[in-house]
Amino acid sequence: MELKYVTTICPYCGTGCGLNLIVMDGKAVGVAPYHRSPVGSGKLCTRGLHAAAALAEWRIEEPLIGGQPVEWDAAIAEAKKIANYQGDEIAVAISSRLTNEAMFLVASFAREILGAANIGIVYGGTGASTAKIVDFGKADVVLLIGDVMKKLPITGNKLYHVQKNGGKLLYLGPQSYTAVQADVVVIADEYTELPTELADAIAAAKNPVVAYLANDAAASAIAARLSAKTAILYDTNNGRAATALGLGSFVLGEKTKALFIITETPEMEEDIYATLMPSLANLELIVAVASNATYISDAATVVLPAAASNEYPGTVTSWEGRVQKVRAASAAPGGAKCPCEIISLLADGKYAWEDKAKIFADLVAAVPAYGQIVYEEIEKPEGAFIKEA
Amino acid sequence: MTSKGDMVYAWTTSCDIKGECGGAVTSLLQHALASGMVDGVLAVCRGADLYDAKLKLITDPAEMPKSAGSLHCGTLLSAKMVKKYLGGAKEMKVAVPVKGCDAMAFYELAKRQQINLDNVILIGLNCGGTVSPIIAREMIAEKYGVSPDAVFKEEIDKGQFIIEYTDENGAHQHKGISIEKLEEEPEGYGRRLNCQRCKCKVPRQADLACGNWGVFGEKAGKATFVEICSEKGAALLDSAVSVGAVATCVPEPKGLEIRGKVENAMLKLGERYRAHQFAELGTGRERLEKIMKLSSRCIACRACIENCPVCYCVECSTAKPHLVRPDQVPPDFMFHLIRFAHIADSCINCGQCQELCPMDIPNALFMHAQQVELEKMFGHKPGYDMTLPVLSYAEEGEERARLNATGSDMIFDNVFKE
Q1: Which of A5, A35, A164, A376 to mutate to test the interface with B (most CBs of B within 10 A)?
Q2: Angle at Cα B364 formed by Cα B361 and Cα B370, nearest 5°?
Q3: pLDDT per residue over A150-204, tens digit each?
Q4: Are both B214 and B355 inside the same structural domain?
Q5: SS3 B40
Q6: Do A146 and A177 sit in the same domain of this protein?
Q7: Do B360 and A181 touch (CB under 8 A)?
């Protein structure tokens, strides 16, 4: 019998909490706190506590064409037919939960091989934070727009430190959990301007920070007019990398005939594809690289089964730009492959996939924000930070 | 031959084991495994650095030396791991190194029939308290002026938190600061708050209680003080001595005296911290209001329940919709009342419901404060033996008559009002 801990990063929100997956005889069976995490000190919310279950539910174990199991060769051949379409007929929807390396390979494949005009990220956001999580402890005033403490609980935890240090939490947004915790609250279901009382408090503060969700455009517009550090909170564990890679939110264009989509979706979060559903029937070809069965994989022409978070190694970038290691805790089930390998197969081996350090080096060369990072530094529990100009 | 109550100095005879204080604990665990007394050791191993402790089930005796050395930042809930992942040791025999809180957790789960203690060898480790890794690193940087990455050893000794580190010139240095001083200051450095309140410093409910307190004279730093606390512990030590895995000698009388003094000093300190921390909670209605206010931060993530070494129910009452409305954040106060009602009498003050709470609710303080009151009322002392908790104690007729006589049906006013 084997029982050990594998330290990795939570696959859910963009806070980047470290956790230990409990691995028994090669299977992730539970989660133990990773007290050494510089982000959460072992604290996890309900999603992190169930990170092992994210690997277990409704897994796809073999390639499918039209819902029928096939060999990998046949599935890859079928999937490659997407290259027969014109660039402006192809849309590529990338998951904001892929590792930095896998996301970079998919984006490279979409741009270089498919020449796709429409490449985007599902459930991502925009913006690069100028604040880090430790800055909350130094802030005297933090403006929270929207229910940020509930969406990213361990980031929310750090906001209590503001109050503990004598600082104030301001809140603008609908009635919510965060509203209950804040000191000065303005309830508004929609917001375009910052109410005077909040604006005055920010103006009077020495070290103000404004925190909001990366997909909240109204909040972003308000924050842009303030002289305060920004904490732009991504709801997914690697949405921040998508922004660094220049990937905007995915919208299925009218010209699209063929869709290449990565659905690396932990349990509990299937709804992120809801807006895509009505349009799927109009498409001629859907190639889904999927770890778990979703209604996207049900609708796909070809399904290429992929390893999920924490089944293949790599790195992820948290909302604060902290790059941390994710480690393979268990093998992907059945015939599922690392998403990097799937891209390599589709690209006839143009991209090497096994050596993740090599992919990261290519990413560093292509994306200046990652340029400062020494790969070995990421191995440390503190990780390494990207630097956006 | 040794027997329960005996005390010895012990050290390893293996040159592979580079353990703390003579490596006796590692050697004893290795011997338990090699001799077939156990099928596995749930060992504490170093992870990324000395601030990172991880559990690993070791089944090959040759692997045991890897687990050597103390890691004072860890708190690992080993009892819950044995319950959840090793089938409660019902089908396998396992040896586990345990701090006081871990040992207490084993008893609480055992009395709830979640762990079979007959199949478990508990090697107790004296513990003056643990420090949360991130706090330890911050404290070392801020208060010691030393890079936490340069530290290669840390310990709590003679009332100080002592670090050994390599300076810029490559020389070994050490530096100690009084624990009390660190803990008095406003930054909140020092040991975990529950460790500050702890009064289980020498875990005598384990089979052996091991540590460096009382190792005096020429063996200082080279041997472990072992107190034999059960016949099972005696059998393990005797067997390890008989095959030459560990060597022992009689402790110095002066060492015994020192050990007693150290333990007493720690207990007194624990008592002082209890008085101080519980006083801050207030009493009566004020305490209740404080608990209600702070627990209104709850997001019902259930981390407190998941990590509690006493909780084990398959169907938790907090998840029953007629008791706590589902999907309410913060949840009804009943969520917390259920936890208090179900386990406060058995709280072993491991502190994890607080340390792992995403919203920093001082759950362990609330729970522990109630436990000490319940202990005064009903005499149940959790974590020390197999005595069952008093689940409820009321002479119903008498109690109803008393409430009736007050003319009010307000339970709070009748029961809790001073």
Answers
A1: A35
A2: 115
A3: 999 999 999 999 998 999 999 999 999 999 999 999 999 999 999 999 999 999 9
A4: no
A5: strand
A6: yes
A7: no
- What does the DSSP 8-state code read for residue B387? P
B265 and B318 fall within a common domain: no
Provide, as residue numbers in chain A, all residues whose Cβ is less than 8 Å from the Cβ of B54. Answer: 4-5, 7, 20
Mean pLDDT computed over every residue of chain A:
94
Give the model's pLDDT for residue A152: 96
Asked whether residue B275 is assigned to any structural domain, the reply reads no
Compute the average pLDDT of residues A252-258: 92
Q: Which domain holds residue B117?
A: 7-126+200-270
pLDDT at B389: 86
Q: Which of A24, A41, A380 is opposite residue B48, by nearest beta carbon?
A: A380
Lowest mean pLDDT among A265-279, B10-24, B222-236: A265-279
Q: How many CB atoms lie within 10 A of CB B335?
A: 22
Classify residue A34: in a domain, yes or no.
yes
B77, A32: Cβ pair inside 8 Å? yes
- What average pLDDT score do residues A281-296 get? 93
In this structure, are A301 and A376 located in the same domain? yes
Structure tokens belonging to residue A64? 């499918």
Which structural domain, as residue segments, surrounds residue A167? 135-233
As a whole number of angstroms, the distance between CA B248 and CA B20 comes to 16
The answer to whether B52 faces chain A, any CB pair under 8 Å, is yes
Give the number of C-alpha atoms closer than 13 A to the C-alpha of residue A374, restricted to the C-beta side.
3
Shortest CA distance from A34: residue in chain B: B52
Last-in-domain residue among B270, B300, B323:
B270
Residues 285-324 of chain B with CB under 8 A from chain A are: 296-297, 299-303, 306-307
What is the distance between the alpha carbons of residues A162 and A205, in angstroms, rounded to a whole number? Answer: 13
CATH number for A180: 3.40.228.10
Find the helix or strand (DSSP H, E) in which A17 lies. none
pLDDT by residue (tens digit) across B370-397?
Answer: 999 999 988 999 999 999 887 655 677 7
Give the pLDDT confidence of B315-341 residue by residue, as tens digits. 899 999 999 999 888 999 999 999 999
pLDDT of B291-304, one tens digit each?
A: 999 999 999 999 99
CA angle B374, B409, B347 (to 5 degrees): 15
Chain A CA closest to residue B57 = A3
**A208 upstream amide cis, omega within 30 of 0:** no
Domain count, chain A: 3
Residue range B31-55: mean pLDDT, rounded: 95
Average pLDDT over residues A204-230: 96
Instruction: Specify whether B265 is located in the same domain as B293.
Output: no
Beta bridge partners of A302: A65, A287
Which residue among B39, B85, B297 places its CB closest to the CB of A22?
B85
Contact by Cβ (8 Å): B188, B201: no
Q: Say if residue B226 is in the same domain as residue B327.
A: no
Query: What's residue B392's pLDDT?
Result: 57
* Cross-chain residue pair B307–A33, CB shorter than 8 Å: yes
Does the residue A129 lie in any domain? Answer: no
